């Protein structure tokens, strides 16, 4: 039985980050380190039940705007509710703005960001493969996304893993509890979101690569050859 693969989707219908090629390359390499093939695509036609059924995880890499067809939305929702996995990276928080299910997946929506600047990430929960390799206080440069609400307010199984320390940069809107990295279950599926990853050079750093590798590890660890969680 073939090993389920990782589908890296990079379509944009709004702002397009210069970091997408570097991110796609890094995620392909990380998937291969985990023994999985990866496909990079911007073709919305790949979101079919048959293609998604071969996926251990789908990555939305800084996707912006409406990037799925109605048929793709239906197939993607069924995939996730049936046991699929989603890794949403950075500007993926600004994707599918008029699809209520996608807002449910993330538990919030993108609400702007200040200028790119140094700051600090506070890792609160290191009992997760994506945050276990990180320092408790991680000095980093990024866009420091703000959100329309706190994802925990959406209910369900949201688990916030890391916060932004708003005292270390300008333009935060959440105060002391500024969500930055979180995960959740959705029916039988799994969702992981990280707001990090704005700059192309970020994807060459060992610390961000360890973060993303851990996210992929968590999302794909229990998949069988049909891309479904056991």
TrEMBL record:
Per the record, a Pfam family? ThuA
Please state every residue range assigned to the domain named ThuA-like: 6-218
- Top-level taxon of the source organism: Bacteria
Identify the InterPro entries for this entry.
Class_I_gatase-like, ThuA-like
What SUPFAM superfamilies does the record tag this protein with? Class I glutamine amidotransferase-like
Q: Which Gene3D superfamilies match?
A: 3.40.50.880
What is the protein name stated in its UniProt record?
ThuA domain-containing protein
Task: Record the organism.
Answer: Streptomyces sp. R44
